[in-house]
Amino acid sequence: MKKNKKVVNLGIVSIAALLLVANVPAFKTEVSAATTENVTSKVLEILSESTQHRLDKYVTVENNQYVLNEAAKSVVSEKEYEAAKQVIVQTNASITKSGSVINKETKEATNEFTVSENGRKVISLNRAKAKKKKYHYGVNKVTYHWNYIRIYMDKKLTKAVVSGVIGGLGALVGEYVTGGAATVAIAVITPAVASYVGDSIKSGVWVDYNLFIRRVNRVGWQ
After folding, report:
1. Which one, of 68, 17, 6, lies nearest residue 191 by Cα?
2. Residues 8-65: pLDDT tens digits?
3. Res 136 pLDDT > 90
4. Strands 102-103 and 108-115, sheet pairing
5. What does the radius of gyration of the chain's CA atoms come to, in whole angstroms?
6. In sequence order, which residues have a C-beta less than 8 Å from that of residue 53 and are 6 or more positions away?
7. pLDDT for position 26
8. Could you tell me the pTM of the whole model?
């Protein structure tokens, strides 16, 4: 059955996602797991999605790092402000580690990637802006935002993920997310994509994954 929807807004993904965790390999760590857990805990308790939206316009880019303007305190509480700053600290660490470059105007950092034939690792990274290979087929890339990453998967990689071959997705996510958090991310992203495309994979897809709430917010066709 074909789907007419262009974009899906997702709440908490099915608990079936958690069953995948045990079968997903660990990937490289960029910042300590303890730091990740502490930040995630604070975000879950303090920083709602609506609050993050209110903070968007107060986040700027300086010296290739995200900076939260103190003027944000006028629209959020002190606790929310401090939690957002901790989120940005971790995102900035990942930006530095991956060698990404943030566009000051869009406030995004884009990395194009190529997955090896066996789907086990990223064999090249292009920090420049990625272009579509051809209509509907899509591209493989990741765009950083201060509080989430948007993962683009071309049609081939999308088919692999839906069929249960997650090596390519795992290699990609492992470039941007810490070891333990990568495992959770893959376990959440995989069923979200499978649910969205169903049995009709007409092109590549993109997925918005919140790094700290650990949830897929939206999925769409490229």
Report:
1. 17
2. 544 333 323 322 333 333 323 334 444 445 555 555 568 888 899 999 999 999 999 9
3. no
4. antiparallel
5. 17
6. none
7. 30
8. 0.69
C-alpha to C-alpha distance for 188 and 97, rounded to whole angstroms? 24
Distance CA 172, CA 151 (A): 9
Q: What pLDDT is attached to residue 211?
A: 76
Least confident among 70-84, 85-99, 129-143: 129-143
Backbone φ/ψ region at 57: left (φ over 0), alpha (ψ -120 to 50), beta: alpha
Q: Is-contact 12 215, C-beta < 8 A? A: yes
Q: Residue 72 is encoded by which pair of tokens?
A: 């944000």
What pLDDT, on the 0 to 100 scale, is given for residue 126? 45
Query: Tokens representing 23?
Result: 């079968």
Buried b (16+ CB within 10 A) or exposed e, 154-173: bbbbbebbbeeebbbbbbbb
Q: How far is residue 44's CA from residue 211's CA, in Å, rounded to a whole number?
A: 11
Contact 3, 200 (CB under 8 A): yes
